[in-house]
Structure formats: C-alpha cells, structure tokens
Amino acid sequence: MHLSNRITHLTGGSDGWDLFNKARRMIAEGVQVTELTIGEHDIRTHPAILAAMNQSARGGHTGYASVPGTAVLRRTVAERVQARTGVPTTMENVMITPGGQAALFAAHSAVCDEGDVALYLDPYYATYPGTLRGVGAVPRVVRTRPEDGFQPQAADLDTAATGATSLLVNSPNNPTGVIYNRDTLGGIADVCTRHDLWLISDEVYDTQVWEGEHVSPRALPGMAERTLVVGSMSKSHAMTGSRCGWIVGPADAISHLIDLATHTTYGVPGFIQDAAVFALNQGAPLEAEIAEPFRRRRALAQTILAGQNAVVPVPSQGAMYLMLDIRATGMTGEEFADALLETHRIAVMPGESFGTAASGHVRVAMTIEDGAFADALTTLCGFAAGRAG
C-alpha cells in the first residue's frame, strides 16, 4: 500500500533528533544521563492549577467543549494580549488550540495553499520545516548569522521574500535565546508589507525575558491585519502536557480557523481550559514564579562561562536555553555533543539540529536542578577546554 508523499516526506530525515533519541535509548538501557536537551520544566504544573483542573473535571466539564475554545478562556486570552501589547483584541480574535504546535500547523494551513513558499529562519525550532511541509507548503529558509547576534537581517529577508506567502518568526527565540530588537522587528514588518506576506509569530516564550523587552510584531503599525500570533500555556505556566495554546489574529482568519478545527482537533478538553483560565488569572506573580528557575540558572551559567575561554555563549536574552559556540574545539556541534554524551553522559542538542546557521554550537536547556546544572555546565566547559587545547 502507498502512503502519501506528504506524510513520508514530512521530516526530510531526522530533523535533528538523533542525539536526543540516542540519549533516550541509553536511559532506557539503564545508563544515567544528564539531559539538557528539550524544553521541559523540571518543576511540574503548579498544584493550584491542578486543583482547578480537578475541580472542573469532577464538576462535569469533561464532555465536548466549544471548538473555538470556551468563551471565558478566549476572553481571558484576549484581555491578556491586549494588556501586554496595546492592540485591541476581543474573543473573536482568538482560537484555542491543543498546544502551540497545533497552532503553528493551523496558522500555516490558514495562509498557505499547496505549493506556496513559506519562509522560516535558521536556526529554527526543530518542528518548523516539517510543519510547513505538512500543510503542503514549500519551506524556504533564511539564515541568520552569529556575527549579527542571530538577528535576522532585512536585506536577507527581502531577497528571500520574492514569491513567498508567509514568514515564521520566533522571539524570544528557541534555540538561541535571542530576543529580536525593535530595528529587527521593523525590518521584518517592512518586508512583510512590501511583499504582502502573512507573518506568523511564535511567542510561546514571551514570559521568559531576561534582558531587553519582548515586542509582539502584531503591535507594529499596519501589522495586526497580517499577523497570526501563536501562544501557549506550556512554557509560561509549566503546562506542557496539558496541550493548551491559541492563535490570535484577524477575526475573519479566526472564523475560518474554527472551521479547520471542527474538521481536525475538535477543540481542547473543557477542564483543561478552565485550568488555563485559573492560571492566567493569577497574573504576573505566577508567571514570574515559573520563570524564576531559568533566570537563576542563567545567572549561574554567566558566572561559570566567565571563568573560561573555550566556550563562547550567545547572549541569552530570553527563553530557557543557552546557545554555546564551541568552534574553538575544532568540532562540529554534532561531534561535540556526541563525544560529550559518550564521555560524560551529558546530553545537549547540536546546533546543527536547528539548521546550518548554528553549526559549531550546542544548545543547553536549563531544565535541571541548580546544582546539577552547574556541575554539568562546568564539566562541559572543561571538556571543551581539553579539546580546544
């Protein structure tokens, strides 16, 4: 029997998960591995959120929920977005999705026809190219560069945008930890306007800002009508397994996205949505509590990295990751990560897992207890120093 080209060519290979899968196989075989690979909180969902979820489920909100999302959650998200960005936003601008990944897929389904060119930036979150292929779009990558601080350059975007339909951006950025500054965002907006592109803005790390400011491109002049924003409870509230996210955009686009959800996901469980409402209503104090371990570990990392010269950090302005330049070792990111795993049983992600722009780098997730994190990072730096020497 024949499977569709779309499903069999979805990943284009491993799409960067080889090292992660190797580490997980070692763990399954009983090997103790320190995992600094994926963005999974080491703390779990707050007990108060779980209590709200339990109360809702036991109260009977376990049947089919409204496909666009419950009215109260859509209003709560709209109020949060308007307060944070200043852009007028109502529930008609919001659809609730089963996590940010489903929102990315739906957003591209909304704006890309079969064969349309969809732009994305390198380095990128590992699922981006497959998401674009999955909706039938043709992925076209635009490289950013370490020497530019991984800030996308308007000239590069302008060259790539000819004949394209959409552009996907992510700030605060996974994997680099970079936050796009106002000049960068202005260049992105100019290119989108000049080439009549839809902008899809992945903002799931918007509560993890360590330096500077996060500006949603939807708030820039003329961008609200051409921007779809992806948000999620996963990173901001440590609700990764609950799968609750959203798309914010023009009301007409949202109405058609609701039709798509009716034929695909059919909504998000009501008790999870009620828990999300409770969590969002706790406001900034709970978001800061969830973000604090990463802020603290970033400070630990800065101290450790300042005491050596074999590893050069990309300035981490946001998100739960460090991107480390290990080119002084003469190794690729893949070679370094594999050797580190074999030698010290520490798993990090090769920069090449996220494209070619971060070749010679590794990404470290700040997702284990402080002491163990400091020990692992110190070991990584010592390993790099030995290879550089």
Word description of this protein:
The protein has 389 residues and is α/β, with parallel strands linked by helices. The protein contains 13 helices and twelve strands. The protein has helices at 5-8, 18-28, 47-58, 71-85, 99-111, 128-134, 154-160, 182-194, 251-262, 270-281, 284-306, 333-344, 370-388; strands spanning 34-36, 94-97, 117-122, 138-143, 164-170, 198-202, 227-232, 245-248, 312-313, 321-325, 346-350, 361-365. A seven-stranded mixed β-sheet has the order 2-8-7-6-5-3-4, with helices on both faces. The chain has a five-stranded mixed β-sheet with strand order 1-11-12-10-9, sandwiched between helices. It holds the Pfam family Aminotran_1_2.
List keywords for this structure.
single chain, 389 residues, alpha/beta, Aspartate Aminotransferase, domain 1, Aspartate Aminotransferase, domain 2, 2 domains, 7-stranded mixed β-sheet, 5-stranded mixed β-sheet, 41% helix, globular
